[in-house]
């Protein structure tokens, strides 16, 4: 799965946004364009906050050639991890893996 629309839709569903039209979702009771969670830093920030509300804590670790993102529980157990050249994409994949391990997203 590549960064982009498919990943963004999975994230939107996993954090509880509701699709009302193609590329139009309800967030906090307000219609909004589908955030670009997997490709922009600003929308990745929305994911980080929404994940925290679900008890999933995203640690983004930059290094020379890539970003490592670890999804952790409150007790610091790693429940998802991804390494990608783009931080937003790594955060999305780590979050989705964490949700899958918890049996919430398929």
TrEMBL record:
Write down what this protein is called: Phage ABA sandwich domain-containing protein
What is the superkingdom listed in this entry's lineage? Bacteria
Species annotation: Brevibacillus fortis
Q: Which Gene3D superfamilies match?
A: Bacillus phage protein-like
């Amino acid at each position: 799965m590549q960064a982009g629309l498919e990943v963004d839709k999975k994230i939107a569903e996993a954090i509880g946004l509701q699709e009302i039209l193609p590329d139009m979702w309800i967030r906090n009771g307000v219609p909004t364009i589908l955030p670009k969670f997997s490709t922009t830093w600003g929308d990745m920030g929305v994911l980080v906050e929404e994940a925290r509300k679900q008890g999933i804590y995203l640690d983004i670790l930059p290094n020379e050639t890539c970003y490592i993102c670890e999804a952790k529980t409150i007790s610091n157990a790693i429940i998802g991890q991804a390494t990608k050249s783009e931080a937003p994409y790594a955060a999305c994949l780590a979050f989705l893996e964490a949700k899958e391990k918890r049996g919430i997203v398929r």
